[in-house]
Structure formats: structure tokens, C-alpha cells
Design a protein that fits this description.
The protein has about 180 residues and is an alpha/beta fold. The protein is built from seven helices and seven strands; from the N terminus they run αβαβααβαβββαβα. It is globular.
């Protein structure tokens, strides 16, 4: 096997990305404090053509060198919006017809692999602060909660890793292009 050169990957330009079909999924970051995590979420969102990212509360916004370090330019291709409060983002998305899920360990959460989705609907996932998770008021306003099954000694994942896992699952279930 020969490793492919970057010129052989047939990546689309940022301009073509803006015009391309998107996964009917929006990511909401609720007080994510690490700029590296924010950049990583931009990068994985670009990779799977997520519609947009809402950056809420203390979550930093581009341009910023630490976001760029992990986003590697995805902060230029991805649409993003800043909201002071994540609850406002959730209300806006719900009013626009999105089904909103918080990714959080709660009573009656749905395990990610058991989640059923409708390809005719639009979805949003709320990802929480690295220590405190998704705010309770946001959980309360969500249409449901998704939990990533874990089988080790730890009870949580890094927020950018968790976001990548959840986006991948939605991509597999909603795939509308390629």
C-alpha cells in the first residue's frame, strides 16, 4: 500500500464546501473552555459537512491561534454563530424545526447506537463543558438526551472526541450525499 499524497485526496475548496450539501446536523457547544477542543470540533464538523456550529457562553470564537492550531482552517469553511446562552441557541433551533439532543448522562438517556433518526428531519446536538457537562436548563429544554456507551473505568470522554463519535453516528444514519 502506498500512502496518498494530499493532491490525490480530491478535497473540495472552502468555496465549494460552502455550496455543498450538508448533513442536517448542527453542533452546539455549551461553555467549552478549551480552544483546542473548539478547533477540533470545527475540524470534525468540516470532515462530515455538518451544517453549522453554535458557540455559546465562554466558548471562544474564531479567529484565534489556538482554535486554528487544531481546526487547521476548518474555522474558515464552517458556518458558525455565537450566542451568549446555549438555551437561546436551543430555542432558536427548535423554533426552526430541529430536534435537539443534549449529549449527557441522564435518566432515560438513549444510547447512541440505539438512536433512531428520520432522514427528513434536522437535528442538533448540544455538547457541554469539559467539567460540568451540558447545563441542566439546556437538558430540560432538549427533546432528549443521547449517551455514548462506555465500558471502562472512566465515565466521560473529551468533548471533542465525544463530538466526533456522535457526528460519525449521525453521518452513518443520515447520510444524504456521497
Amino acid at each position: 500500500m502506498r500512502k496518498l499524497k494530499i493532491t490525490e485526496l480530491n478535497r473540495i475548496s472552502a468555496e465549494a464546501f460552502k455550496q455543498a450539501d450538508k448533513l442536517p446536523l448542527t453542533v452546539v457547544l455549551d461553555d467549552v473552555r478549551s480552544l483546542y477542543n473548539v478547533g477540533s470540533v470545527f475540524r470534525v464538523s468540516d470532515a462530515f459537512r455538518v451544517e453549522r456550529i453554535y458557540l455559546c457562553g465562554i466558548t471562544a470564537v474564531p479567529p484565534h491561534p489556538e482554535i486554528h492550531k487544531t481546526a487547521l482552517g476548518a474555522e474558515f469553511s464552517m458556518d458558525w454563530v455565537y450566542k451568549e446562552r446555549a438555551i437561546d441557541a436551543v430555542d432558536e433551533l427548535k423554533a426552526a424545526g430541529y430536534t435537539v439532543y443534549s449529549v449527557e448522562q441522564v435518566e432515560h438517556s438513549v444510547m447512541l447506537h440505539e438512536l433512531s433518526v428520520d432522514k427528513q428531519k434536522k437535528y442538533a446536538i448540544v455538547m457541554g463543558n469539559e467539567v460540568k457537562g451540558v447545563r441542566q436548563e439546556v437538558v430540560d429544554r432538549s427533546d432528549g438526551c443521547i449517551e455514548i456507551p462506555q465500558f471502562g473505568t472512566k465515565h466521560s470522554l473529551n468533548v471533542s472526541v465525544a463530538t466526533g463519535i456522535v457526528i460519525w453516528e449521525f453521518f452513518n444514519k443520515l447520510r444524504i450525499f456521497i
